[in-house]
Structure formats: structure tokens, C-alpha cells
Prior knowledge:
GO terms for molecular function: phosphorelay response regulator activity; transcription cis-regulatory region binding. This is DNA-binding response regulator. This protein is an alpha/beta fold. It folds into two domains: about 5-115, Response regulator (Rossmann fold, 3-Layer(aba) Sandwich), CATH 3.40.50.2300; about 125-220, Winged helix-like DNA-binding domain superfamily/Winged helix DNA-binding domain (Arc Repressor Mutant, subunit A, Orthogonal Bundle). About 40% of the residues lie in helices and about 20% in strands. It contains eight helices and eleven strands. It has helices spanning about 10-25, 35-45, 60-70, 85-95, 105-115, 150-165, 170-180, 185-200; strands at about 5, 25-30, 50, 75-80, 95-100, 125-130, 130-135, 140-145, 145, 210-215, 215-220. The strands form three sheets. A five-stranded parallel β-sheet has the order 2-1-3-4-5, sandwiched between helices. A hairpin with a 2-residue loop joins strand 6 and strand 7 (about 130-135). It is globular and about 50 Å long. The termini are far apart.
Amino acid sequence: MTAVLVIEDDDRIRLALLLALEEEGYRAYGVATAEEGLRRQRSDPAEYVLIDLMLPGMDGFECIRQLRRDDDVPIVVISARDDTHDIVAALEAGADDYVVKPVAIKELSARLRALRRRGRAGAVSSQVFGDLEVSPEAGEVRHGGQVVPVTRTEFRLLCELAEHAGRVLSRRQLLQRVWGYETGDERLVDVHVGRLRQKIEEDPANPRHLVTLRGLGYKLQR
């Protein structure tokens, strides 16, 4: 049974999420602080982590950063804060998605399913873009011969662009194909593209492979 860790300090919200997730078929367990969450994830890793931003002690942003240092678990922020700065900051810290409270459990469950796989069924075999190699079957990205640590979502985004190498994909297309959303916040795409550039480009400010076509979208080129 798929396990979900919920890091939420509000007892009522945490309990409601745990019960709703269990009804959806997940094994869910919760903690009230970031520190507890980090300990629990290290000792008994879950397949997903749901986290609030406003936590006592260590906040959600720092917790996400610490999780990302050694774990590519899908992280979904669940927060009442819907300010653009907070959303972008959470994604830049390493979150895969951001859901504003109150949470609709069916929507949340759909988002978790969309984050499930590291690669895509039927994805192309390894492709080389100069010093960048994308290997969907191996679940691996290499830059200059060295393995690049990427999250599941970053990997799926790169695989999608590699499968359509040289073609421009709009933000909406990428949102649909990588996150599984018919509609949604296109900032998810922009922030993850920015994070990927930091990992795969020699000069992220002047990308060679993952380029922007202003007003159109992104493409991966050789």
C-alpha cells in the first residue's frame, strides 16, 4: 500500500487529511513538526510527502530543502498561503506541486497519481544532447559523464522534452503531459525548468540545451 507522510501542525486538518487519504487507499501517517517529519522520512520512507509551510520550529521551506538533499520523494505543499512569492519559493526549495487549502481530496489524489512514475510509459531510449544524456529507461540523467541528481518531476519534464527534441512545447502542454493537469498554474513549469537549468547547463543564464522560445514555450535542442 502506498504510504503518504503528512506534515501538518493543525491537529484537525492533519486528522482530516489522514482519514481522507486512507479512504482513497493510501497508508497515511502524520506528524506535527518538520523535525518529526524529517526523522520519520529517514527511518520509514513514504512514497509521498505532504507538507504545510507554516510549522512550529523549522518552517516548511527549510524542511523541503533538507528532504531534497538526499531524497527525490514527490513533495506536495498544502498551504493556506496563496501568494505568488510563497508558491514560487516552495517550488524553488524543491516541492513538486502546490495545493491551496481547503483541499479537495479527489483533486489531491489525482495529483499524487500524476507524480507517481519516475519516467513515462513508452518513453524514448537514451538521447544525447552534446554533453547531456537523458536515459528514460535507466531513470538517469548525465552531464559531462556525471550522473545529475534530479527529482522525479524534473526527470519526467526532461524526458518529455527529450521525446520531442527540437520541438517547442508550450507551458500548457508540459503541464498536461508532466503533471497531468488540464488546467493549472503554469509557474510549476517555469520554476522546474529553472531548477533543471541549474543542473544541466554550463551557464544557466544562457542555456545551450533547454531553451525558451518567448511567448511559445520550451524545447530541448542538441
